[in-house]
Amino acid sequence: MALLRRLNENGISRLLEFLHSVKTDPNLAPPIEILEHGDTSEDLGDVEIIIEPQVFGSRYAAAEYLHGLLSDSGLDGIDHDRGVWAWLALFYFEELCPADKKGRRSPGQDARWVPESGHAFRYYRHLLAGPYRIFHAHRSSPDKAMILLCGPLHQPGDIVEQLASRQELVTNASLLGTATALYLDEKTGLAKRGVTTTEKLNGRTRGKPGTVRRLVDVYQQFDLAWDLYAMETDSLVDLLPQEFEKYKRN
């Protein structure tokens, strides 16, 4: 167990330096010493939160755990505390950046590790803050957002890219409930195959019929005529055109 702290700017720089270096030298050990060192981190004042080392297995499990610890902790501004989320990302580094069969690691863009609070899309790319914020936005019924929370932490996937890119999409329980109803495979607990495939039309890339990108397109058309925030999931599913039938059946 560990007492949650916050990386300061020096600690964030050290974390990013490591992430850039581990791409070419996978044998580098994560600099866990900066989690506790006074030069790279700071305590949270009067707030004490115990963090347990564990393997979550999914974005949902991580979001549920962190939401239980942080949402009512008294820690102000947790949604936008980049130092806390950077600290947590390093603490859970092994699950967030697992080595492949050849021992290589792919940490990806910096926004996956240190949130960019001024850009909502990139904030949702953070491997822990993203799931946390989605869970918090739908805390009364997080199962509706399961399509955004079902995958492994290190692989958010294109569905998250498409649906968490705009505030009006990621906060709409009806839309996310519809996406979950259409695209979540109840047997595997993961997204169905093929739901993010694209095609070229007149030189432009678009989603194939019935896929997630097409759902976003249809939603934006519907939004001009209906109050989608107030609409129940079943009602929105019923409104969808014929191209979505194969996902409704399955």
How would you briefly describe this protein structure?
This protein is mainly alpha-helical and 250 residues long.
Your description of this structure?
By secondary structure, the chain is mostly helical. It folds into 2 domains: 142 residues, no CATH class; 94 residues, no CATH class. 40% of the residues lie in helices and 8% in strands. The chain contains 13 helices and 8 strands. A two-stranded antiparallel sheet has the order 1-4. It has a two-stranded antiparallel sheet with strand order 2-3. Strand 5 and strand 6 form a beta hairpin. The protein is globular. The mean pLDDT is 91.
The biggest beta sheet reads: 2 strands, antiparallel
Describe the global form.
globular
How much of the polypeptide forms β-strand, as a percent range? 5-15%
Mean pLDDT rating? 91
Give the secondary structure arrangement, pairings included:
Elements lengths: L1 E2 L2 E2 L1 H14 L18 E2 L7 E2 L7 H12 L11 H10 L1 H4 L23 H4 L5 H9 L8 H4 L8 H6 L3 H4 L2 H11 E2 L4 E2 L6 E4 L2 E4 L4 H11 L10 H7 L5 H5 L1
Helix pairs in contact: 1-3, 2-6, 10-12
Keywords, please?
single chain; 250 residues; mainly alpha; 2 domains; two-stranded antiparallel ribbon; 13 helices; 40% helix; globular
